[in-house]
Please model this.
Amino acid sequence: MLVFAAASLKNALDKIAADWRSEAGKQATISYAATSTLAKQIENAAPADLFISADEDWMDYLQERNLLDPKTRIDLLGNALVLIAPKGSRIETTIIPGFPLVRLLDGGRLAMADPNAVPAGKYAKAALTKLGVWLSAEKQIAAAENVRAALLLVARGEAPLGIVYKTDTVAEPGVKVVAGFPPDTHPPIVYPMALTATRQNPDAPALAGYLRGPAARAQFEAQGFTVLAPPP
Model:
């Protein structure tokens, strides 16, 4: 079975897949990348059985092309957006309209996922725009191919600040959270899940159900996700 999942889900889903294998004796191969990349691969006939997106837009994109089973679509998880710095950084700020982002960068780059396509980057751009600081900081953006790549730029000290999901910081001890973005500065961060229209593996519905069950819920919550889907 092949699962396509947003890069930010890696730590939680790796553990859930291992639990499912030990409990059910079933094997799931999970391919992680930016949601935009995965959606395009499904559009180009990649043999995914299950897709978990980091936003509604790319799930809508596939549904409009009849590449999903719409009856199986459900909002699985929620997340939050945070500003991060390397672990030893002394940067402090409060995220309010007009906060001094460019001064805090001090000539460095702001790491984020590609704001033109990748959900984490789109949420980040929306937040910075709402706060009135996007135009001033735009030329200092270091656009990464996915949110985990942005996370690594900060963890390695290659960028003094970055914008990632709250859950990413649980997975990376080399960063610290400087501040959280108010939820009203960006669209709600929702991870929808659906079986693909071309799925071949008969175990795919069972895995989708397992991802909504109590064992998976515990793993998602341990990584900082909010579980939105009711139990199957």
About this structure: The CA atoms of residues 99 and 133 lie 7 Å apart. The longest helix spans residues 10-24. The chain has a mean pLDDT of 97. The longest strand covers residues 81-86.
